Amino acid sequence: MTHFVATIEEILVEGSARLFRNNIWKLHGLLESVVSDKGPQFAVELTKKLNKMLEIQTRLLMLFHPQTDGQPE
Length: 73
Hints:
The protein is mainly alpha-helical. The chain has a domain at 13-53. 41% of the residues lie in helices and 0% in strands.
């Protein structure tokens, strides 16, 4: 499924997260995956900003150190 949301200006990650929250999340809930032509850093930042807006604690795992200490980022 694809949604297109019109904007009148260029937006960065925070603006993209806000558009997602206001237009997509209310219809479908959280993401299962992110497809982006902006690279993996954009997808990571989008997820972090969206989680912060939705007051979801993010606990990122290190690739070679999957233990978490229970502290949110």
